[in-house]
Amino acid sequence: MTLSPPELRRYARHLILPEIGPEGQTRLAAARVLLVGAGGLGSPAALYLAAAGVGTLTIADGDAVDDTNLQRQVLHGTAAVGRPKVASAAERLRDLNPHVRVVPLAERLTAATARALVAAHDVVLDGSDNFPTRYLLNDACVLERRPLVYGSILRFEGQLALFATPGGPCYRCLFADPPPPELVPSCADAGVVGALPGVIGAMQALEAIKLLCGIGTSLAGRLLLFDGLAARWREIAVRRDPGCPACGDTPTISALIDYERFCGVSPAAPVAAPDDAEIEPAELAGRLARGEQPQLVDVREPWEFAIAHLPGATLIPLGELAARSGEVDPRRPVVTICHHGVRSLTARAILRRHGVVAVRSLAGGVEAWAREVDPAMARY
Fold it and tell me: Annotated active-site positions, please?
């Protein structure tokens, strides 16, 4: 490939770097990068990859832009709320660099599509926010021999690594088994500081650029841990596990599987909570309509309660629940409530330890209540 005069001017600050120069920039222009996720991590990664002149940038994401995304997903603006994320992303990136071919895929990766998609690209960036996609991408990259730039974020902490390189470890070498779903807080439940994905996503883009240009020392065999509150990086060595089912000496994974079931989040997977632990929104709505008066204990934070709550609910934040359990009448049925139904299950266990037996958690939390019972309720 030959860089055009406009490209030579655009990439002048790259061309002057001896590590990149015209040869490296030409390699970038010929490269094909797959970015899975156009959210918190995908936003800065996509912006910097497009600005760097990656020839083809494919972005896969099945979600639409929500106003709660805008605190951290800088690829999108207020006018994009409600639009597919990949449509918003493509518009922004084409404006940023018309020399880059942006391919939007408004879909979630599946076991049926991942291998072919991965095989058609040179480098894969994981900007996902869930374990099924992480294991799916890892296995597809190992099988198709494509490097995987991994990143994850939560609260003030981030992780960064490079997996599936020749002789290097894969994601399964570090996390052989997925954690139980009920123990994994999402960013919606635990929060994430908006600038953090900018740090990790930009580092993912940098790692991809190094790989494509063949420069520097890669992250293969290393896991970087970033503590935003302490402004500190730590590094952990990660070695390939000879017994790894994906990249080990005698691998047993030769095809992609049902990763939602593998991670315990499929509807067909065993439910972690006992059968009587949860109450569906429709059932609770019916009980309230019939005049029943269970105690509604909302265990979210005050700012969340202020956005939206069920009428008659009492706010007792989860961190205070054990000390304030005496405010809950053990003679009445209780329904614990949170945002997505995770913290409320923990609250149920706390109350049962304090002698409140008839307690159930609202399945799906106020998010499910707004979706299934009260569409006028504010969502966040």
Answer: 187, 338
